[in-house]
Amino acid sequence: MKKILMAAMMTSISEVMETMFFLPIEFGEDESIAKLVKIISKPIACQLSFTGDAAGRLIFVAPKELTAEMAENFMGEPQDQLTDEHLFGTLTEMLNMVCGNALSKTKSKVPYSLGLPEMVTASQIDTNELFTVVETTESKMAIAVILDE
Fold it and tell me: Helix %, strand %, coil % for the chain, to 5?
């Protein structure tokens, strides 16, 4: 199930990033959170829980600079006028769009429902979790699907 969800998430993140944030992406290797915090400057992260045929959460980690670019593209406001609240709102909205889009692409017997996106710190993420690196032309971010046992 994790492979099916991750494939749907990868398709969705590509669609959402290009359509809503005007950022084409490519996927890189899987990395641990410990390595990611070394390659992603000033990381901010958020997670979104879901339930349905499978239950778990989607975690997204991005550098603050890239999140500001996403917010600028999404909101049409110059970066110097954006607050941290705008950045967090943009990141959680992107996560909502990606997760909702991805879950709608998976066949399920039980309808999926989404929780509320929340900001997390790298220290709140299990160091053994692997994240798929998502590369834009100038930056890197990462996404992970974590299923409940």
Answer: 45, 30, 30
**What's the CA gap between 82 and 99, in Å, rounded?**
25
pLDDT digits (tens, 9 = 90+) for 73-86: 999 999 999 999 99
pLDDT at position 106, please? 87
Sequence letter at residue 92: T
Q: Is the Cβ–Cβ distance between 67 and 56 less than 8 Å? A: no
The whole-number pLDDT of residue 11 equals 93
Q: Which pair of structure tokens corresponds to residue 67? A: 């999140």
- Amino acid 116: pLDDT: 93
Strands (E), 4-77: 26-32, 43-51, 56-63
Contacts of 71 (CB under 8 A, 6+ apart): 77, 79, 82, 86, 87, 89, 90
Tell me the domains of the chain and their CATH numbers: 2-147 (3.40.1550.10)
Q: What is the mean pLDDT of the chain?
A: 89
